[in-house]
């Protein structure tokens, strides 16, 4: 049975927005995990924040960081990823909540703790995640799991997908 929903699609197509729309329709006590959001200064993207569904905030990556692995012009903040996002996934898993993972991508995969926790979450149950389209070993592993329902978000389907995702999650 495909109990995990994974959204993929080109950058900026609306995967994270779709996840937020689905979360708003659910009981807040039934959902845990994290999402990421752009950090913008003067209409310019300078980084990405991590926000747990319980309200904790951190920085995933930023142009002004000087330590950490580089992805393009950003340095990845492994400390916040491991202190905020990964514990949020573990808490949601232990509580049996719907687990939100936004996103499974190259930045997050710099943490050696991230992929093992994602596997535990996927093995356990209902995950709603976004997956970078870029191919990598772990991303391909997620993409080809038998318990994954993979949905490509496109301009023509993104407005109708929240209801489909909700039906699959709670139906």
Structural overview:
The chain contains five helices and nine strands. The model has no long low-confidence stretch (mean pLDDT 94). α3 links the parallel β7 (98-104) and β8 (127-131). The chain has a domain at 4-35 and 87-170: 3-Layer(aba) Sandwich (Rossmann fold), CATH 3.40.50.300. The protein is α/β, with parallel strands linked by helices and 171 residues long. α1 (15-24) packs across α5 (161-170) and α2 (78-95) runs parallel beside α3 (114-124). The radius of gyration is 15 Å and the shape is globular.
Can you lay out the helices and strands and say which pair or pack?
Layout (H helix, E strand, L loop, with lengths): L3 E5 L6 H10 L6 E11 L2 E9 L4 E6 L7 E2 L2 E3 L1 H18 L2 E7 L9 H11 L2 E5 L5 H7 L4 E5 L8 H10 L1
Parallel strand pairs: 1-8, 1-9, 2-7, 7-8
Antiparallel strand pairs: 2-3, 3-4, 4-6, 5-6
Helix pairs in contact: 1-5, 2-3
Quick recap:
By secondary structure, this protein is α/β, with parallel strands linked by helices. The protein is 33% helix and 31% strand. It has five helices and nine strands, in the order βαβββββαβαβαβα.
Work out the helix count: 5
Cα radius of gyration in angstroms: 15 Å
Please tally the β strands and state the result: 9
Beta percentage is: 25-35%
| Order of the strands making up the biggest sheet | 5-6-4-3-2-7-8-1-9
* Low-pLDDT residue spans: none
The CATH superfamily name of the domain at 4-35 and 87-170 is: P-loop containing nucleotide triphosphate hydrolases
CATH topology of the domain at 4-35 and 87-170: Rossmann fold
Residue share in helices? 25-40%
Q: What gross morphology would you assign?
A: globular
The topology string of helices and strands comes to EHEEEEEHEHEHEH
- What CATH first level of the domain at 4-35 and 87-170 would be assigned? Alpha Beta
Q: What is the structural class?
A: alpha/beta
């Amino acid at each position: 049975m495909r109990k995990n929903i994974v959204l993929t699609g080109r950058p900026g197509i609306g995967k994270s927005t779709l996840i937020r729309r689905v979360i708003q329709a659910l009981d807040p006590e039934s959902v845990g995990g994290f999402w990421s959001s752009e950090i913008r200064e003067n209409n310019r993207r300078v980084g990405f924040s991590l926000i747990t569904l319980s309200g904790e905030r951190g920085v995933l990556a930023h142009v002004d960081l000087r330590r950490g692995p580089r992805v393009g012009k950003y340095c990845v903040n492994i400390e916040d990823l491991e202190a905020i996002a990964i514990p949020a996934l573990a808490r949601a898993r232990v509580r049996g909540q719907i687990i939100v993972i936004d996103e499974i991508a190259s930045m997050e995969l710099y943490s050696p703790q991230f992929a093992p926790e994602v596997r535990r979450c996927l093995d356990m149950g209902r995950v709603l995640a976004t997956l970078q389209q870029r191919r990598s070993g772990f991303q391909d592993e997620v993409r080809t799991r038998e318990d994954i329902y993979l949905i490509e978000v496109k301009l023509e389907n993104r407005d109708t997908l929240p209801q489909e995702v909700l039906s699959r999650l709670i139906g």
